[in-house]
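Request: Not sure, any thoughts?
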Amino acid sequence: MPYLKFLQLVDTVRQLPSYPAMDATEVQTLNALAQEWHIGNKVSVVQAMGMLPHVSPSSVHRRLKTLRAKDSFLSRRTNLTTASNTSSAPGCSAGTSRRWTGV
């Protein structure tokens, strides 16, 4: 029953006063990012916008912003950086792209 213990632990953490409230899309976005970070991948904003095929890219982009705004919990775990040697993302200068990286 390790999985049930895991679910109980997750529920306990979510009930902590310091844990930010998140909607289902935020949770899915964060889970997808965490999987990539766990294997050492950096994820650009554009890549993140395409990670959830059942959610529109603009919705994922909005959720990235809301997750970033919840910095009392997440800023210690994520970092939005500018990386060179990548294709330009919308709203970025040529030769730069916004990247989410696990810290």
The chain is about 50% helix and 15% strand. The beta strands are 43-44, 78-84, 96-102.
